[in-house]
Amino acid sequence: MSYGYVTFFILKALVDYVFKTHNHNNSSNKQSYSANFDSTSDIKSVTINIVTGGVITLALRFIKSDEATAWTEIFRALTTALKQHQRVLWVVPGGSNIPTVVKVMAAISNNESAKLAIILSDERFGPPGHENSNLVQLYKAGFNPKKAIVVPVLRSMATLTTTVDLYSKAAQTAFTAADNVIIQLGMGADGHVAGILPSSPAAVETKKWVISYTSEPFTRITLSPFALKQAQQGFIVAFGKVKQPALVNLRDKKLPIKKQPAQLVKKIPKAYIINDQIGVAK
């Protein structure tokens, strides 16, 4: 593990800093949409360009693929970032995306992994190592971080309030220390991402970095929409016919985050929706 990288993270946690954000919410600018279709080999995609004030502010690319090859898109983005930057942060999910995370990490070299930090997009509250923990499930699936830093979420003997506070500080530090931030998210049939369920206390516009709430059977701790929107690149990996309506809504509609949390990726400069249902805008 890179000593300089670890030291940088520790020092950044001990000092105040100015966090700079990009405002993509200027309602005075009219937005327009255009689509480009690309079909190469067995991958079909459509890129939705969102133009604000005459400038392309977002390229939302839908990639029609399969579960066996989906991981290669994320691997390509990470390895490119690791070659170009000294500190890369990868935000990873649990759930159905765990096999993809494991495959991507297995393909990253030991040397490149030393420049990588990894943080969960969300976690289930409890003592470290509890059976429903997303991190535990990652490791059980064969996840090996190699020389990468894994930013902890759950702390021994910590209350929920303390856990949220420490997770928030760790996330701020990790995002700010990184030269490039790449997030990977799953998406449920209801359009939720990370631990942000529709109409939940987390599905709000706030400048908090971390939000916690109870939704049975878990007390959820999740990075907020505000935090996730600080990324330079974002991936949603969603497979299954049951998710087609949510994918179509994401592609064709501008919905509030409260109704479809996945809409938050439209605030990330480069966003990719890897799925097996849609790749061509109607």
What does this structure look like?
The chain is α/β, with parallel strands linked by helices and 282 residues long. The chain has a single domain, classed as Rossmann fold (3-Layer(aba) Sandwich). It has 8 helices and 12 strands. The strands form 2 sheets. The chain has a 9-stranded mixed beta sheet, sandwiched between helices. Strands 6-10-9 form a 3-stranded antiparallel beta sheet. A hairpin with a 2-residue loop joins β1 and β2 (43-52). α1 crosses α6 and α2 crosses α3 (98-107). The longest helix is centred in the N-terminal third of the chain and has 18 residues, at 67-84. It is globular and about 45 Å long.
Largest sheet entry: 9 strands, mixed
Number of helices: 8
Give the spatial strand order of the biggest sheet. 1-2-3-12-11-8-4-5-7
The domain count comes to 1
Low-confidence stretches: 1-43
Distance between the termini: 48 Å
The portion of residues forming beta strands comes to 25-35%
Please compute the radius of gyration using only Cα atoms.
18 Å
Mean pLDDT: 84
Write the layout of secondary structure elements.
Layout: H1 3-14, E1 31-40, E2 43-52, E3 55-64, H2 67-84, E4 88-92, H3 98-107, H4 110-113, E5 116-120, E6 122-124, H5 134-140, E7 149-150, H6 160-177, E8 180-186, E9 210-215, E10 218-223, H7 225-228, E11 233-238, H8 244-252, E12 270-275
Parallel strand pairs: 3-12, 4-5, 4-8, 5-7, 8-11, 11-12
Antiparallel strand pairs: 1-2, 2-3, 6-10, 9-10
